[in-house]
Write a structure and sequence with these properties.
- By secondary structure, the chain is of the alpha+beta class.
- The protein is built from 3 helices and 4 strands; from the N terminus they run H-E-E-H-E-E-H.
Length: 141
């Protein structure tokens, strides 16, 4: 029972970390520190990449200082931030490049299912641990 409780607590911790990352990213989008930089086509849907001065990428602006295009980009950033806040999309990963990185976001609204929160191979690790302890160590029940 203790292992199940610890496992559930671990899952809740992972969920909390994911939620905090989403909210921080939304805040950076709303303050103009991040902006849409790429569209990534995946099987069954798509993801969006965001970057900005904080990530080593120049902020996306309208060509030839076109205010209308810059406004469209800003509205897209606001929509992404709202989708992150209402938990319709999530940060799904980071692409690293030389001297820069981008933050990727996707979700069911873009055709990609939400990620399952899990601790990698935790049940396998628990099983192997119990097997090793019972086989090689003399432990009272």
């Amino acid at each position: 029972m203790k292992n199940v409780c610890e496992f559930n607590q671990g899952i809740r911790s992972v969920q909390l970390i994911q939620r905090n990352i989403d909210l921080i990213t939304a805040g950076l989008l709303l303050t103009g520190q991040l902006t849409i930089s790429r569209l990534i086509i995946e099987p069954g849907g798509f993801a969006l990449s965001v970057g900005g001065p904080l990530t080593g990428i120049a902020r996306l602006e309208g060509k030839y200082e076109n205010k209308t295009l810059s406004l469209v980009i800003d509205v897209g950033d606001i929509i992404l931030a709202v989708l992150l806040i209402i938990d319709q999309i999530n940060v799904s990963g980071i692409f690293l490049g030389p001297g820069r990185f981008t933050i990727n976001m996707t979700g069911p609204i873009f055709g990609i299912p939400k990620h399952d929160y899990t601790l990698p191979d935790i049940e396998k690790v628990f099983t192997q641990f119990r097997w090793i302890v019972t086989d090689y160590l003399n432990v009272d029940s």
